[in-house]
Write a structure and sequence with these properties.
The chain contains 13 helices and 18 strands. The protein is an alpha/beta fold. The strands form three sheets. Strands 3-2-1-4-7-9-8-10-11 form a nine-stranded mixed beta sheet, with helices on both faces. The protein is globular.
């Protein structure tokens, strides 16, 4: 899909083609294209079908909004899930009651603070929420983040280098009724002047011609440019890959890893906000854990094994989780916690231990057959075992289920057999 085809998609004729394409999602693609070609030219047919397919894929990230939004394949791949974008917008706009009084003689004039937002009802801002922050989005993509910021009351100036992406982002702001709060233009992030705004937001592209990159120096814009922008911003939030090497995190920044329904989605680096160091956040619950310096003891496997959420692991907060469950590590280098008490926490899944064995495929198969286990959930950490091959080699046939954990216990390959109690 090129810029001309996308522009035509926004015309009344293009909207009719898109609506028909949406109705054909899930049908045979050749038949769908043939049907649309009876009315529309090849370019519009292709653009409509592509956009309809992207909207369907986007529902996992954007929910009902996806049905009104526009995407590019790369833009959808990199875009932020709505729940995560909303979390960041809340963090950026939250202030203390003293800093942003919602009423009384010190309340801001209409249009300058919370006075321009509803004070009652479902659309009212949380008490203490700042309205009207001026944000520059230096690498806006299709707009997933600036949509959340605009809905939180921010005014956003968004920039992207690709004209098609800019057109898509503008269309999204218009489609969701936010065009009065967002301006989108073609531009180079390196030329953005963050000092002219309250907040810098940046989501540098993490894909090259060879695919996804995990090297910040290969980001677009590259890491030195990102750091220069951050250094000139009064406050900044930079979205990065969860696996960012710690040495790339600038001094004085807070690094936050976000997990959504148990899956680590991304990390963000914050400057100019309250707090530094490391933070993990669980969504949709909103639970937050920060570094306290807690160090986990090491000891034998107890009655339970706790598997910390990935955000806590990425943030090096396993010691803090261990403290929550009164636990210990059975190997100092592995992020599994063991304990003797059944403690419920959103920060870890809990499994009750039935047996601990030195790893042997033959012995494991015998132990599972003895328990009449026919279905296993296999987890592993610090194990070289091929899970699918092991599953095939076990040749299980029984009515019960179990969870097995392949790991290392003080340098010895081991397997922990657990029952099927639901995780905490």
């Amino acid at each position: 899909m090129d810029l001309d085809a996308f522009d035509e998609l926004l015309t009344p004729r293009g909207q009719r083609a898109l609506a028909e394409a949406v109705e054909l999602v899930g049908t045979d693609p050749v038949a769908a294209a043939t049907r649309l070609r009876k009315t529309y030219d090849a370019a519009l047919t292709s653009a409509a079908l592509t956009q309809a397919g992207l909207r369907e894929r986007a529902r996992a990230k954007f929910g009902e909004d996806a049905g009104r939004m526009y995407f590019t394949p790369h833009g959808l791949e990199q875009s932020t899930r709505t729940e995560v974008a909303e979390h960041r917008a809340r963090r950026l706009t939250a202030e203390t009651q003293a800093d942003a009084p919602p009423h009384g003689p010190d309340a801001p004039p209409h249009g300058l603070g919370v006075a321009d937002a509803p004070l009652h009802g479902p659309d009212a801002p949380p008490r203490g929420l700042r309205r009207g922050l001026r944000v520059v989005d230096a690498c806006c993509g299709v707009g997933g983040d600036f949509l959340a910021l605009a809905r939180a009351g921010c005014t956003v100036a968004a920039v992207d280098t690709d004209p098609l992406t800019v057109a898509v982002a503008r269309a999204n702001a218009d489609a969701l009724g936010l065009a009065d709060r967002v301006t989108v233009s073609v531009g180079d992030a390196a030329e953005v002047r963050p000092e002219e705004y309250d907040v810098l937001f940046a989501d540098p592209a993490r894909r090259t011609s060879r695919g996804r990159t995990f090297d910040p120096m290969a980001y677009s814009p590259p890491w030195p440019v990102v750091l220069d922008l951050v250094s000139r911003a009064s406050r900044a939030c930079v979205k990065v890959a969860p696996g960012i090497p710690y040495e790339f995190i600038p001094g004085g920044a807070e690094a936050e890893w976000v997990s959504y329904k148990g899956e680590v989605k991304e990390a963000a680096l914050w400057t100019g906000q309250e707090g530094t160091g490391r933070r993990a956040t669980l969504l949709p619950g909103g639970h937050t854990l920060t570094a306290t310096g807690a160090e986990a003891a090491v000891g034998p496997v107890g009655r339970y094994v706790y598997e910390p959420d990935g955000a806590a692991i990425r943030a090096h907060l396993v010691g803090e989780v261990s403290e929550i469950v009164n636990g210990r590590l059975f190997d100092p280098m592995i992020a599994y916690i063991t304990g003797d008490d059944p403690i419920d926490t959103p920060w870890a899944a809990r499994y009750e231990v039935e047996d601990v064995l030195p790893f042997s495929g033959k012995k494991l198969r015998a132990a599972l057959r003895k328990r009449q286990v026919g279905n296993v959930t296999i987890k592993k950490r610090a194990s070289a075992v091929d899970i699918e091959r092991l599953r095939s080699d076990l040749r299980l046939n029984g009515e019960k289920s179990a969870t097995i954990i392949l790991t290392r216990i003080i340098d010895k390959p081991s397997v922990i057999i657990c029952d099927t109690s639901p995780p905490a």
